Amino acid sequence: MAAVLAVDGERTSGQDIRTQNVTACSAVSNIVKSSLGPTGLDKMLVDQIGDVTISNDGATILRKLDVQHPAAKVLVELSQHQDEEVGDGTTSVVILAAELLRRGNDLVKRKIHPTSVISGFRVAVREACNYIRDQLAVNIDTLGKDALMNVARTSMSSKILAAEMDFFADFVVRGALRVKTTNNNGGVSVPIKQINVLRAIGKGARDSIFVEGYALNCTIASQAMPRAVHKAKIAFLDFNVSKQKLPLGVSIELKDPTELAAVHAREAELLKERIAKVVASGANVVFTTKAIDDLAVKYFVEHGVVGVRRCKKDDLRRIAKACGGKLMLTLADLEGQESFDASNLGEAELVAQENVGDNELIVVRGCKEAKAASMILRGPNTYVLDEMDRSVHDSLCAVKRVLESGNVVPGGGAVEVALSMYLENFARTLGSREQLAIAEFASALLVIPKTLAVNAALDATDLTAKLCTLHRAAQENAEKKGYARYGLDLFEGKPRDNIAAGVLEPAMGKIKCIQFATEAAMSILRIDDLIKLNPKADPKGAHEHEDDYE
Length: 550
Prior knowledge:
Layout: E1 2-4, E2 9-13, H1 15-33, E3 43-46, E4 52-55, H2 58-64, H3 70-85, H4 90-109, H5 114-136, E5 138-139, H6 147-156, H7 165-179, E6 181-182, E7 188-189, E8 195-201, E9 209-211, E10 214-216, E11 228-237, H8 258-280, E12 285-288, H9 294-303, E13 306-308, H10 313-323, E14 327-328, E15 346-356, E16 359-367, E17 373-379, H11 382-405, E18 407-410, H12 414-428, H13 434-445, H14 447-455, H15 460-476, E19 486-489, E20 494-497, H16 498-501, E21 504-506, H17 507-525, E22 529-533
Parallel strand pairs: 8-17, 11-12, 11-14, 12-13
Antiparallel strand pairs: 1-2, 2-22, 3-4, 5-18, 6-7, 9-17, 10-16, 11-15, 15-16, 18-21, 19-20
Helix pairs in contact: 1-3, 1-4, 2-3, 3-4, 3-17, 4-13, 4-17, 5-12, 5-13, 5-17, 6-7, 6-11, 7-11, 8-9, 12-13, 12-15, 14-15
């Protein structure tokens, strides 16, 4: 009920605020629900200035929405967190969190205390994650060389690249394996930021190109420079390579006009000295995030050095890390002089300007410290290219998780149904009130296979019941253990062995999805009071002269 406070605001407490929160979160979930799975539909979002985004990626859709309700904002942040942490499963995590919240609220209406519900959810999520690790996860090494390709295909099957998923899955796996590194303890790391994804309008998706090297969407500063440099030593600069200009507000007063020529000559001399310091260190390629003026280009050409201007700072940081160099903000040293040390240079086998499709790109190959890869995506317009970029990123993240953890699980709702059957049995072994919450948690997990079936225009109740029967048999009868791998075939409308069919997802992604969804549901369920302060009136005269500036 709403009550007026002594402070300037309104208080809503008890069941009213819980119902409000559940309604707001269900509304957010319903927006993305129809975009789940390989047969999911896309959303078109138009912002205030008319920019259009077409996507079925849950995190992208929710990021573009202007959500006002504080509880619904938790789900929006949840999808962003899943995107950052795992990269895939952003729609599933929101749908599951909203369903857990709805079922938790139903228990509270039946006079179960929220603390008991939260405690039961916490037990359920711990048991679920342990069951995935111990029973459902399959080591990638036992599935053969196509397993990584199948992980990439599964991630792309629900995206715009579904028609060309074999073609792009090859790109993704090659890129991930190229940048994969192993440390001394045997741990695997896949820095997917070392895979640069560029976009170029024109041609079709199958005209996209994979480049073994880091590609920059830049060109050399002058055609008089070499187009390729072998055994490149690269200087990375984050300042203008141009004539020195006086700072703002600083001026020189000259009485003799002939002295002006001396000032200009000194400016040119300073630039020449700077370039000489960089060249003397052994650099034969210079990348800068800022400008290279005509005089600097002249000096670079004289020394046979390749200069590339207007590079993105993020790109230079990654290339510098891969080549063992440093991005220099200035040439100033501790003595107040200017110097450039050879230790700041990065090394690569080849830096060349190459024709890729209709464009010319700078490609850095054979980096000293780490390998890099690039993809140039082709498509008819920016909307398609943006969605292709998101699809490739999600697929890269899925392959990264599999390479780092080494485990996969069957897709198509197999994990959720298996956990639901297991938790139902587990709840019966408990004598406390938590068993009700665990049973509701088990039922909530079925929302994923049901939504997948509904989006495929299939009978969700019938298919989910068949899948539940198979998984119950797998858990009760050791001879039928193979049924634990069964999930939905949304094109044939029947259950199938999804490990054999190649529908694979990262085990780590599933575990994180369930953990994040449960944490979000518990944090919202814990709320039993909302105190909303009234907006303060404008100070007197704040808008008095507003019309004068319009």
